[in-house]
Design brief:
With about 160 residues, the chain is an alpha/beta fold. About 40% of the residues lie in helices and about 25% in strands. It has two domains: about 10-75, Orthogonal Bundle (Helix Hairpins), CATH 1.10.287; about 80-155, Transcription elongation factor, GreA/GreB, C-terminal domain (Chitinase A, domain 3, Roll). It contains three helices and seven strands. It is elongated and about 70 Å long. It holds the Pfam family GreA_GreB.
Length: about 160
């Protein structure tokens, strides 16, 4: 990976919980089921054995992916952003398009992006266009539907822990 894998502390915790759940709970139960099924004789028509092995491969693949993503992760707490006047990682920005339609977006790590909830990945075209923008700035974004212009109308960060 040539660029850092930024992630919020909450996003990292979600990855960690999934890893621990798969590794500590689901995988050991599955290995036990596979061992039991293997002891029942003919494995070629044993559904528990066949399905169990397939599911075990899926879990191991997911565990490997989660492990690599957590190892490459650079946890950044948006609450400690030094410059709160511009859009950087963890910022929540309200933008308006040419038709004055407003959208509120939060720039998060690519692993925690969920466009339906307004959380866009740090490396998405929209996030790249908004990086460094301040309230009142207009940015042109190349989207699959064509180029659009957006104006930043509001900007916020999570409250600083030092202030609380």
């Amino acid at each position: 990976m040539d660029r850092p894998n930024y992630i919020t502390p909450a996003g990292y915790a979600v990855l960690r919980r999934e890893y621990e759940q798969l590794f500590g709970n689901e995988r050991p139960k599955l290995v036990e089921t596979i061992s039991w099924a293997a002891g029942n004789g003919d494995r070629s028509e044993n559904g528990d054995y066949i399905y169990g092995r397939k599911r075990l491969r899926e879990i191991d693949r997911r565990l490997g992916w989660l492990s690599r993503r957590m190892k490459a992760a650079k946890v950044v707490d948006p609450a400690s952003a030094p410059d709160r006047s511009r859009i950087f990682f963890g910022a929540t920005a309200t933008i308006a398009d040419e038709d004055d339609q407003e959208r509120t977006l939060t720039l998060v790590g690519d692993d925690e992006a969920d466009a339906g909830k307004g959380m866009i990945g740090w490396n998405s075209p929209m996030a790249r266009a908004l990086r460094g923008a301040a309230i009142g700035d207009v940015r042109r974004v190349a989207l699959p539907a064509g180029e659009r212009e957006y104006e930043v109308v509001a900007l916020s960060y999570p409250p600083s822990r030092a202030a609380g």
